[in-house]
């Protein structure tokens, strides 16, 4: 397993330097040599997301989820990539699943999941739900998504403005 992790860390290094061909080649080698392990698919999904190819990232993460359906992180990242790929409804579904799987354990993605779901809910014009999610997020929270930097204040303002127009 250490050798696999080393190879996937190397793939990530190539991706950080925008050498996506080499990064994907290394991931594909791991996937081919260890088809029952999810590590290679997860890393390749992350690389696709880094490239902006959210369709392939979501496809790989869907295959990971098929093997490990109860891992909240898998649903969290697929939800984020759905959001970045313009599919707000699927993002809400995945982020809701991530939060449910995290349960009362305060999973380390919970605050981000609430926030990303609020972003998706604003896009779906579900303003009250977005504001409810914002209650689970620190006031100084911000995150970078494909469309740029978004803060809690931005989402609250958009949801509040959307409510008054409705």
Structure description:
With 166 residues, the chain is mainly alpha-helical. The chain folds into two domains: 1-69, Tetratricopeptide repeat domain (Serine Threonine Protein Phosphatase 5, Tetratricopeptide repeat, Alpha Horseshoe); 71-166, Tetratricopeptide repeat domain (Serine Threonine Protein Phosphatase 5, Tetratricopeptide repeat, Alpha Horseshoe), CATH 1.25.40.10. 72% of the residues lie in helices and 5% in strands. It has a two-stranded antiparallel sheet. Strand 1 (142-145) and strand 2 form a beta hairpin. Helix 3 (39-51) packs antiparallel against helix 4, helix 5 (72-84) runs antiparallel to helix 6 (88-102) and helix 5 (72-84) packs parallel to helix 7. The radius of gyration is 17 Å and the shape is elongated. It starts with a helix and ends with a helix.
CATH architecture field of the largest domain: Alpha Horseshoe
CATH top-level class of the largest domain: Mainly Alpha
- Kindly state the mean pLDDT as a whole number? 94
CATH-defined superfamily of the largest domain: Tetratricopeptide repeat domain
Question: Low-confidence parts lasting 5 or more residues at pLDDT below 50?
Answer: none
* Tally of separate domains: 2
Percent helix, as a range, is over 70%
Using the alpha-carbon principal axes, give the shape. Answer: elongated
Judged by helices, strands and strand pairing, the structural class is: mainly alpha
Into which percentage range does the β-strand content fall? under 5%
Query: Mind describing the biggest β-sheet?
Result: 2 strands, antiparallel
């Amino acid at each position: 397993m250490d050798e696999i992790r080393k190879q996937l860390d190397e793939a990530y290094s190539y991706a950080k330097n925008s050498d996506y061909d080499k990064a994907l080649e290394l991931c594909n080698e791991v996937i081919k040599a260890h088809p029952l392990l999810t590590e290679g698919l997860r890393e390749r999904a992350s690389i696709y997301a880094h490239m902006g190819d959210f369709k392939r990232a979501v496809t790989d993460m869907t295959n990971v989820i098929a093997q490990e359906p109860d891992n909240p992180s898998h649903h969290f990242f697929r939800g984020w990539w759905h959001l970045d790929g313009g599919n707000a409804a699927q993002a809400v579904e995945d982020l809701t699943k991530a939060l449910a799987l995290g349960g009362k354990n305060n999973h380390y993605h919970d605050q981000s999941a609430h926030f990303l779901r609020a972003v998706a809910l604003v896009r779906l014009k579900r303003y009250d739900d977005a504001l409810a999610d914002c209650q689970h997020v620190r006031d100084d929270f911000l995150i970078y998504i494909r469309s740029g930097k978004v803060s809690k204040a931005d989402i609250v303002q958009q949801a509040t403005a959307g409510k008054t127009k409705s």
